[in-house]
Amino acid sequence: MITDEGATARSVVVRVAADVAAGDGDIVAEAARNAADSVPVVETGPTGIAGVEPLVLATVTGRTAFYPAPDRATVRELVDVMEAGDLPTADAAAVVGHEEGASSLPVPDDGALSVGRRAVLGPCGWVDPLAPGAHEFVAAEDDAGAAAELGLLGRGRGDAVADHPVTEAWDLARETDGDPVVVVNANEADHRPRADRTLLAGAPLTVLDGAAAVARYVGATDVVLHLNESDATLVQHVREAVARVDLPVDPRVVAGADEHRAGAPTAALEVLEGAERIEPRLQPPTPAEHGLYGRPTVVHTPRTVAQVRHALRAPAAFAPEATDPGTRLVTVTGDVAAPATVELGTDATLGTVREAVTVDGRFKLATVGGVFGGVTGDLDLPPGAPALDAAGLGTDGVVELLTEGTCVVAEAGERARFAAEANSGRCVPGREGTQQLAELLRDIYQGSFRSDDIRELARVMRRTSNCQTGAHAPRPVTTAMDEFEAEFRAHADGRCPSGICEENL
C-alpha cells in the first residue's frame, strides 16, 4: 500500500477496493502499479459489496469509472488511458460524476453499490484506510455529548447496551469511581456478520475517531480494540492504523479467542483479562460499573462508535424523534452469489438488501439477526431495533436469504445444536436448556413433534437465561414453527417437504 497520504485527493488516481485479506486485490493493485508511471495507485479496503471486488475505481477530474474484478490486461489498458490524461470509460460498469476531493464513495445510479446509503460506510472502498491525512477527524475538543442527546442505540451483539441508549452506559461510567476505559468489541467468530469487519478493514481510523470521542466524554484515556485471533490480517491492519494515527487516547489492539462466546460483551472482558474460562458475567453490576479489571467500562462495537462519529459530524442526519436514530448496517448473506453489507436509513425496509445480491435459487425464507436470528418470509419492515424486536426477529445486522433447497426443520436443528455446543455453561438455561431444545428437535425425526413443550422451554429460557446464547437460541426454532409448522409436522410423519432429510427420517 502506498504511503502518499494525499493520493486519494488528487484529480487523477486509481483506487483498488478489496478486503484486506483478499489476495486478488493485491494482485490487481500490483498490476496497476507496474503499469503506472505518473498515476498514483491506492488500495482502499472493501466497499462492503463482495460481488464487485476487487473493484478498480479510475478517477480523473471529478469523474470515476467503475471496473469490477478486471483482469490484468484490462488494468494495464485503464492505466494507459489515464496516463494520457483521459478517463477510461469503455466497458465500465458505471461512470459517476462527483466533487473533486470527495471523502465518500460516489454512488452509481444502479447496481449493488447503489443500494441504501453511504454515510458510515462512506469512506469504505474510497479512502486510504491507513492514511490519517485522507480522513476528516472529529475536533479534538469535541466529545460524544452531542451524540448522547440524539438517543443513539448500541448496535450488535458485542455491544453492552445493544438496542438500548448508549447514554445509559456513558453516564454511569462517568459517575462511577475509578479510571474509565472504552472497549471496542469486534471479536466475531461467526462468518455471517460482516459489518464490523468491513468498517475496521475499510475505515479503521473512523472507528478509532468515534471511540476517542466516547473516551473523551466518559473521561477515559485508553481504548482497547478486541478482535478475533483467527483474523490475523485484519488484526495487523488495525494495529498499523493505530500506529499511524495521533489521538488524545491510547488505543491498544488485543486478539482474542476464536469462539462464539468470546464475542459477548462481558465474556469479552474475561478474555481481555486472560481468564481461562470464557463465560459471561452475572449482572448487575454492569460493565459501566465494574468492567475491565474492575474499572468503569464502556463496551461498544465498531458499528456503534462509527455511528457516534457520524452523529458528531452530521447531526442533522439523525432524526431526534426516531426510535432508532441513525442508520443500520446490514449484511445480506445465505444462498447468495456473494455477501454484501449495506447501510439502511430508518425510512428503508429490510427487503431493500435483496437488491444488493444475487440469490442462487428461488427465495423461501430469511433468517434475520445472525445464527440465533428469527425466521420470516416477510422483509417489509424497518431495519431498526424496535421494529425487528416487535416482529420477533434478531437485531444483529444480518439477513440470510435462503432458497427452496432449505429444509427449515434441519436449519432450526443445526442452530439449536450450535447453541448446545457454543454456550458457556454458566447458567442452567444456557447449559441445560439448549441441550433440551436440541433433543426436542431431534425427536421430531423420530415422530414426536411436541410443539407446546418447545414453546414452554423457549419461554423459560428467554426469561431466565443469564447469557445471550440461552436467551436467543430458541428464536430460530419458534419463529420457524410460526411460519412453517406444516413442515415440522410433515417431518414427524416421516416426510421432508424439501427432500433433503430423507436419510434422517
From TrEMBL:
GO molecular function term, any single one: 4 iron, 4 sulfur cluster binding
Record carries keyword Iron: yes
Residue ranges of every copy of the NADH-ubiquinone oxidoreductase 51kDa subunit iron-sulphur binding domain listed in the record: 409-454
InterPro entries tied to this protein: Nuo51_FMN-bd, Nuo51_FMN-bd_sf, Nuop51_4Fe4S-bd, Nuop51_4Fe4S-bd_sf
UniProt keyword Iron-sulfur, yes or no: yes
UniProt-listed Pfam families: Complex1_51K, NADH_4Fe-4S
Family: Belongs to the complex I 51 kDa subunit family.
Name of the protein this chain belongs to: NADH dehydrogenase FAD-containing subunit
